[in-house]
Specification:
Blueprint: H1 6-22, H2 39-94, H3 97-105, H4 110-117, H5 123-194, H6 217-227, H7 245-254, H8 264-269, E1 272-274, E2 284-287, E3 294-300, E4 303-306, E5 315-318, E6 324-329
Antiparallel strand pairs: 1-6, 2-3, 2-6, 3-4, 4-5
Helix pairs in contact: 2-5, 3-5, 4-5, 6-7
Length: about 325
């Protein structure tokens, strides 16, 4: 075999590189190893990004809740307007002859009455009857028409507001895709640091849940939250299979007949303020003073049940893990 010199080997190598490039193979140098970020570093990134995302999620909950309420009110007003319009139309149809003239032009005069009657006999009785008929029909139509016009004006104002709310709802809905992309990135960071979606915050349960059980509404609401441990977090969800933070507390208290809106700031205003020393199972624990964008339900022993963030599940946690804004007692 003929030996190839240095120049020959260089030429062969150049030819091989060109051939590989021609078929789309990229030749690179030695791979550079990248250190895996530490769990604490990833958690710091997750906390920072999630604290920016969760207020947007809660804003969507608020706007969407307003939209649903407004649309229900629109439907109710439309249902009330339809029979009123029927009554007005029926009353107008029943006003015939002189009664129509009485409604449109005022009470008929004696001459008209005489012409219709053909004789002056009983003129006073006829005038009295016509006047009463006109007044009755007029009052009947005016009363119904006034109520119809009032409801129509209310519905018109509501339509304007609802249109604005629907536009905001649509805008936030379009942002959901971008939010979900960011959330997916957070989840990848979690997996990279911990190897699984469930390992970052330890076990879902930290002991008995609730820690202290009381057979009142708060205790039963806390028990309901405990029963939901393990359900996946999905933003904007209020069950039955997935929850976000305010959706979880809404479900827990709803199970004992107490309605809470699906929005942290509304829930803050729907309960009685209590101090930390007064905390009882079922009380709501709010976080992040100023923005109020997270909430959990107290279960005793300094612990709560909450729906933390995407990629995680409803779980027990210490209430001091985040900056506390305050406490509220629903019902």
């Amino acid at each position: 075999m003929k030996r190839i010199g240095a120049r020959g080997r260089a030429a062969v190598l150049r030819g091989l590189v060109c051939a590989l490039a021609a078929v789309g193979v990229v030749v690179t140098g030695p791979a550079v190893a990248h250190a895996t970020p530490s769990p604490s570093t990833v958690e710091a990134q997750i906390d920072k990004q999630w604290n920016e995302l969760e207020p947007v999620i809660e804003q969507y909950n608020d706007v969407h809740n307003q939209l649903l309420k407004n649309r229900a009110r629109q439907k109710s007003l439309a249902a009330q307007l339809t029979p009123l319009q029927v009554q007005v139309d029926l009353a107008m149809a029943q006003v015939q002859g002189l009664a129509v003239d009485a409604y449109k032009q005022g009470a008929p005069n004696a001459l008209n009455a005489m012409i219709i009657s053909g004789s002056p006999t009983g003129l006073t009785d006829k005038l009295t009857y016509l006047d009463q008929l006109a007044r009755h029909q007029q009052e009947q139509i005016k009363g119904v028409a006034a109520l119809r016009d009032k409801l129509t004006a209310t519905k018109a104002d509501l339509d304007v507001v609802t249109k604005s709310v629907a536009a905001r709802d649509k805008d936030l809905s379009t942002r959901k895709k971008a939010i979900q992309t960011k959330i997916t990135s957070l989840q990848k960071l979690r997996i990279q640091a911990y190897g699984s979606a469930d390992a970052s915050d330890g076990p879902l349960r930290l002991g008995a849940c609730p820690v202290t059980y009381t057979n009142d509404k708060g205790g039963r609401a806390a028990q309901r939250a405990c029963d939901l441990i393990g359900k996946p977090y999905v933003f904007g969800s209020a069950g039955p299979n997935t929850y976000d933070c305010s959706g979880l507390t809404q479900e827990a208290w709803g199970s004992v007949g107490v309605h809470l809106d699906h929005y942290t700031k509304d829930q803050w205003g729907e309960g009685k303020a209590v101090s930390r020393d007064e905390l009882q199972p079922g009380d709501l624990v709010f976080f992040f003073p100023g923005s109020l964008h997270h909430v959990g339900i107290y279960i005793g022993g300094g612990l709560m049940v909450h729906a933390p963030h995407t990629g995680d599940h409803v779980r027990m946690a210490e209430i001091d893990r985040m900056p506390i804004a305050g406490f509220r007692r629903p019902g």
